Amino acid sequence: MLNLVLSPSHIWRNIWSSISLIKEIVVWRVGNGHSIRVWHDKWLPKPTTYKVQTPINRLSTDSTVVELIDIASARWKTNLKMEVFSSEEAQLICSIPISSRDVDDKLIWAKSTKGVFSVKSACFLDCSLTKQYVGETSNGETVDVIWRKIWHLKVPGKFKQFIWKTLNDILPTKQLLRKKQIMDDGLCPICQHSKEPIIHVLWTCPTSMDV
User: What is the CA radius of gyration of the chain?
Assistant: First the structure.
């Protein structure tokens, strides 16, 4: 029984079930388009799915959003959009602003006006989803349910602390340490490409995606 409780797969299944809510509503904000996969990632301002629904056609399955951008003019390639996507999705893409600067694509929390994760917005989302299945509930009850599930997981205490720190955005990532002026560099020490917020550490760093 002890081996079952402490096995890595069992631990990570429990952890993942507790924080999967975050992953569900993380979307891409378009920068230079190099990191966003056209057909697979969430990047459209379309709250139902955030993903392209047009069947894969002219662009390859691994195409990135940069292929849709005219770099010289910092505008969308209008003709290509109309040829590849449905009229509705082409209009959605047109509504996405393109920066004239070469800024990285950024993962944001879709349910926050500033795009920043917070427990409050996570609980609001959880409450909204809960209403679909069990009817009306208060935000306070939802918060209690979330934390009760976390603290009753059959995993070592350090894993519960990890989840708690993750949800409260207080893991000592390089980006957080840079914000507190403890470090000068906020780049991921593994991939040396992206800044290192919690979302990058857990999901988008190439090393994390291989785990």
Answer: 20
